[in-house]
């Protein structure tokens, strides 16, 4: 089994576990990002209070809306990302060694090359999996109030007193809704800010690889073994890398979520977005720059925890798989 495939499968498995652990935080954060009320109209609640409010009003299902497609999306995203990342990373390492033989560099992949590899992997991932995340965002932001509004609308149109129960808001219903609103192109809503968002994992992996390389170099120079990095250290490195990437790119994540969430027909035009630039201008005009940072605290907790768990579990799965299939924990060359 190729090293790229091992990394892809390990990334998919680790991503699923991390998503299961942190999903309630992700749901609350998506709702915070898509909250279009001005700061003056908001009653600030802590993340825990918001989670409790969702459970009280909608039950535990409210925190897990869209979990099934999210797990599919996570497995696909992490699998695709790590697969292409490992292939491109191996190419970059081969080129670095070739340059060293010609007297250029020290044979290691530089920061710019790491950033480029992560960015290209991210672009492939986004283009292939964006439809899944459009569905997940719709399901995460579908609240009990939306259901009640839909019920009242149907009853009013039929001019009857009997309450008409809407169909369950499941994956298939969400797909039909997106297609009905915008056709096939609707599944790529938010694609432009999402493509820009590849800078998040790109920065994350650049920081992670840089910190990991420095740690291994320090271990090698102290005769402790270059590969002797513990699961806890991987956890902490992953957390630090994700923290830095999230702080830099969070405004793009807010714009992406706004575009992927359902645009309510007949709602205030200030809250309806025609595209990326329109969304950015309306957020600045009606909410101020703080609108780009709605729910950032929750996102930092969720994404840093998820990334740290993902890195730790993925590395352990890769080591186990390499030992099982090759009898060694060292990476094999991919041509």
Topology, pairings included?
Blueprint: H1 3-33, H2 47-58, H3 67-101, H4 111-140, H5 144-158, H6 171-182, H7 191-196, H8 199-221, H9 231-260, H10 276-287, H11 296-326
Helix pairs in contact: 1-2, 1-3, 1-11, 3-4, 4-6, 4-8, 8-9, 9-11
Low-confidence stretches: 150-166
Question: Roughly what percent helix?
Answer: over 70%
The major β-sheet equals: none
The fold-level CATH name is Mitochondrial carrier fold
Run of helices and strands: HHHHHHHHHHH
- Give the tally of structural domains: 1
Description:
There is one protein chain. This protein has eleven helices and no strands. The longest helix is centred in the N-terminal third of the chain and has 35 residues, at 67-101. By secondary structure, the protein is mostly helical. It is a multi-pass membrane protein. This is Peroxisomal nicotinamide adenine dinucleotide carrier. Belongs to the mitochondrial carrier (TC 2.A.29) family.
Write a short abstract of this structure.
By secondary structure, the chain is mainly alpha-helical.
Task: Give short descriptive properties of this protein.
335 residues; mainly alpha; Mitochondrial carrier fold
């Amino acid at each position: 089994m190729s090293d790229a495939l091992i990394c892809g499968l390990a990334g998919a498995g680790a991503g699923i576990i991390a998503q299961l652990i942190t999903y309630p935080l992700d749901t609350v954060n998506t709702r915070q990002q898509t909250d279009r009320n001005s700061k003056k109209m908001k009653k600030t609640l802590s993340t825990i209070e918001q989670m409790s409010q969702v459970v009280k009003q909608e039950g535990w299902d409210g925190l897990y809306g869209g979990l099934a497609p999210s797990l599919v999306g996570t497995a696909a995203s992490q699998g695709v990302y790590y697969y292409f990342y490992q292939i491109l990373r191996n190419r970059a390492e081969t080129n670095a060694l070739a340059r060293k033989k010609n007297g250029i560099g020290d044979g290691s992949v530089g920061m710019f090359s790491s950033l480029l590899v992560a960015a290209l992997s991210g672009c492939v991932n986004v283009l292939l999996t964006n439809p899944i995340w459009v569905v997940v965002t719709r399901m995460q932001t579908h609240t009990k109030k939306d259901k009640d509004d839909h019920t009242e609308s149907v009853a009013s149109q039929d001019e009857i007193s009997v309450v008409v129960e809407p169909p369950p808001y499941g994956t298939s219903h969400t797909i039909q809704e997106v297609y009905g609103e915008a056709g096939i192109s609707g599944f790529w809503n938010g694609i432009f800010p999402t493509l820009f968002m590849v800078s998040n994992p790109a920065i994350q992996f650049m920081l992670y690889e840089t910190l990991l390389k420095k740690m291994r170099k320090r271990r090698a120079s102290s005769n402790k073994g270059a590969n002797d990095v513990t699961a806890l250290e991987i956890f902490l490195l992953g957390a630090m890398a994700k923290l830095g990437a999230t702080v830099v790119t969070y405004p793009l994540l807010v714009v992406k979520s706004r575009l992927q969430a359902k645009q309510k027909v007949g709602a205030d035009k200030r809250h309806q977005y025609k595209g990326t630039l329109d969304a950015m201008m309306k957020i600045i005009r009606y909410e101020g720059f703080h609108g780009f940072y709605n729910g950032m605290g929750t996102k930092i907790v969720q994404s840093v925890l998820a990334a740290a768990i993902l890195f730790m579990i993925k590395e352990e799965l890769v080591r186990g798989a390499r030992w099982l299939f090759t009898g060694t924990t060292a990476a094999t060359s991919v041509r």
